[in-house]
Every structure is written in C-alpha cells, then in structure tokens.
C-alpha cells in the first residue's frame, strides 16, 4: 500500500443515490464494503462526511435563517450520516467509532485527538462527525484539519467524477482533466476541489489531496495502492502532459 493512513472525505449527497434526499442504504453499504477492503489490508482510515443530503447550513442561511443556527443544523446532519456509515461498516465485521466535534455522549464519542489516534492504532475506522464543531467552517476544512491531526498520509476526496477538470465538463465538453496539479494552481485557477481554507491547511501540513471517483468499484483500494487514479494535488509543479479530455459529470 502506498498510503498507510488515509482521511476519506465523502459528500452527504453521495449517500442519496438516485433519491432526492436522505440516505440510500444500498449506497452506504457499497461505501462500507470499499472501506472494509482497505481496512483489511491494514490501512488506517479516518472519514469525514458532509450533510448536504439532509441539510446544508449555507443553504439555510441564504434563505434568511441565522447562519450559526443553520450551520449547527448542518453539523447534526453529518452526525446522522456518520452513524449510518458506522452501522454499515460494523455489519461487515469491522469496528468503527463516531467521534463528534459537538458533544453528544449518548450516541457518539467526543472528538479527542488522542482517542482518535488510539482507535486508529487498534485498527478501527474512525468517522468524524459534526465537522470542526464550529459554525462557518465547511466539512472540507474539517477533513483537512482532521487529516492533519491524525497524521494522515493523504486526503482522499471521493466525488462523482474521475478527477479535477479545467472547467465543468458537463457544460464544456472539451474540458481537460489534470492528472497532477499544485495547491497554488488550484487556488489561482479557482478550481472546484476543496475550499481555500482546506487547501491552505493541506499545503501547510504537506498532505496531498487525491480527487477520485469512488462510484467505480475497486477505485478506493486502487487509489490507496498508488495506482494512477484521479487527480493528485500537492506542492509539485503541474504536469501539463497529464491532461486528458473526458466529458464526465462535475462534482459541485
């Protein structure tokens, strides 16, 4: 395995499947199976899930809701998703723990870095709920922060596309895909990867970001093995020869 410890970032929308909202149990099971595959190979796994399939704080704020209240609701949505994934993983025989940035001791453990590290060292999958525990921060930022705290080798952002494109390939058919790009170029080009705060944390910590399509069976373990899956974002120079045109979906 190329990576011994990973932070997997999932969007809440990914758990909807073909539904208009909520959680599709078959999708959660599919994710859990892929997590099991790499856990059984001895890879330490931390997971951060968004809550957009249930409630998006920023969306509530744009409709007149108090931003802090809306963000708290969004954080609670991530805990619901975390509990669903924990259940699916444990049904496959792999131990998992939900650590929440907001204390709710009856359903999840509070996030304590040493506790998270202890779970990982014992081979348990650790799912980080409630984002950073603070309003105004996205789950992308939470993923970058938790990756730094657990000393992950990489942040793996699972999307519905096979990497980062120069533009939205749904709207621009000849949009080119990057195999490799630098943090700086992501920021300067305004590419939709993660928010600027998340990119900055990863850059300062030296943690690469791998953007890949997790809907393809076997992609997660292939990515952990270091196979050429998706787009790698790190401090290196952009490799122009890595462009490929492939009009697939676009992750928002």
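^ structure tokens above, recovered residues below v
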């Amino acid at each position: 395995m190329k990576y011994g410890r990973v932070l997997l970032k999932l969007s809440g929308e990914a758990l909807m499947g073909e539904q208009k909202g909520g959680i599709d149990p078959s999708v959660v099971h599919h994710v859990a199976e892929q997590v099991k595959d790499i856990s059984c190979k001895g890879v330490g796994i931390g997971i951060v899930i968004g809550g957009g399939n249930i409630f998006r704080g920023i969306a509530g704020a744009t409709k007149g809701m108090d931003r802090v209240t809306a963000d708290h609701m969004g954080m609670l949505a991530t805990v619901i998703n975390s509990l669903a994934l924990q259940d699916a993983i444990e049904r496959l025989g792999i131990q998992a723990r939900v650590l929440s940035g907001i204390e709710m001791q009856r359903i999840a453990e509070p996030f304590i870095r040493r506790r998270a590290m202890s779970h990982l060292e014992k081979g348990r999958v650790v799912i980080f709920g409630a984002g950073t525990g603070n309003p105004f921060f996205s789950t992308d930022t939470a993923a970058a922060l938790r990756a730094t705290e657990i000393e992950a080798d990489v942040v793996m952002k699972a999307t519905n596309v096979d990497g980062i494109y120069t533009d939205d390939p749904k709207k621009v058919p000849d949009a080119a895909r990057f195999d490799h790009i630098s943090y700086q170029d992501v920021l300067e080009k305004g590419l939709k990867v993660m928010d600027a705060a998340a990119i900055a944390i990863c850059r300062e910590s030296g943690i690469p970001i791998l953007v890949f399509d997790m809907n393809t069976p076997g992609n997660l373990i292939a990515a952990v093995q270091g196979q050429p899956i998706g787009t790698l974002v790190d401090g290196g120079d952009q490799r122009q020869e890595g462009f490929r045109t492939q009009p697939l979906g676009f992750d928002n």
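The mean pLDDT is 90.
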